[in-house]
Amino acid sequence: MSAWLRDETPLSPAQSDTDEWRTDRPDIFRSLRDRDEGRHHTAHVTSAGADWLASAAAYPRSTLALWEARPAAPAVLPCGTVFDVVNVDTIFGRRMLDRLWEEGPGTGPVAVYRGRMLLFAAPGTAQRLPSLLEWEEWGDTVPPPLCHGTGDAVTIPPLTPLEPTGPRWVVAPDTRHPWLPGPEVMLWACVRAVRAASAADVRISIFPPADQDAKVYDVSRRR
Predict the structure, then answer these.
(1) Which of 60, 89, 184, 209 has the most crowded Cβ, counting Cβ within 10 A?
(2) pTM above 0.90?
(3) Cα end-to-end distance, the chain, whole Å
C-alpha cells in the first residue's frame, strides 16, 4: 500500500439518530461546552464529543447524568455500533499516530489507558483488521492488536482527567459525528509504523529522541 485509503463507512443509526434523547437532556458539562466556543483543545472532550460517546451506551441520558456527577471517573462503553476500538501498545500506537497525522488522513478519537493506546475506528474494523493483517506482507511483524467490536466493551478515560500522566485523551472527541478510520486505513497505519520502526533501527544518532508525549496533532486536517 503506497497511499492511505480513505474509508467511506456510513454513519450508524446510533450516530445519526440521537436527537430524541439530546433535546431534553440536562444542561451538563458547562466547562466542556465553554471549550466549544472559539477554543479548540485537542486533548479535551467537548460537550458535542460527550454526546457522541454517550450515544454508544444503552441509556445515553443516564450515562450523561452519571458523567455530570462524576466527570473525573473512567467509564465503560460498548463497541460495535457507534465505534470499534483498536487497542495497541503505546509505543507502537504512537508510531501509528505519527504516520496517520504526517502522511495520512489523521485519526478519530484516541485515548491512552493503563499502558495501552485505544484508537477509535469505524464499526466493523475489529472484525476485518485481523484478517487483513494475515494477508499483508508485513503483517507478521505488526504487534498483534486487540480489536474490540460487537459484544465487547472498553474503559475510556475520564472526560476531565485529573492526572496528566494517567488515563487521558490524546485526540479527544470534539463533534457528534467524528470521522473514524476503517480497517484499510488502520492496516495502512500498522504497516507504515512497522516500516518506520525498521528504518529507525538502522539509524545512528548522537541526539536523544524527542519527547513523544509532546506531540500535538492538528485535528482540523482530519478527513
Answers:
(1) 60
(2) no
(3) 19
Grid cell at residue 60: 445515553
Tallying the residues shown for the chain, one arrives at 223
Q: Distance of CA 144 to CAs 114, 207, 223, Å?
A: 17, 31, 27
Whether 157 shows a pLDDT value over 90: the answer reads yes
Helix (H) or strand (E) holding 18: none
Say if residue 199 is exposed, middle or buried (CB neighbours under 10 Å; 0-12, 13-18, 19+).
Answer: exposed
pLDDT digits (tens, 9 = 90+) for 113-132: 999 999 999 999 999 999 99
- Distance, in Å, from the CA atom of 159 to the CA atom of 62, rounded to the nearest integer, reads 16
Give the C-alpha separation, 10 to 221, whole Å: 20
Residues 109, 173 contacting (CB under 8 angstroms): yes
Is the pLDDT assigned to residue 74 strictly greater than 80?
yes
Q: What value does the CA radius of gyration of the chain take, rounded to a whole number of Å?
A: 17
Q: Show Cβ contacts of residue 28 under 8 Å, excluding neighbours closer than 6 positions.
A: 47, 50, 64, 65, 67, 68
Flag whether pLDDT at 9 surpasses 90.
no
Backbone angles phi, psi at 168, to 5 degrees: -160, 165
Cα–Cα distance, 87 to 112 (Å, whole number)? 9
* Residue keyed to cell 446510533: 14
* pLDDT value at residue 8: 42
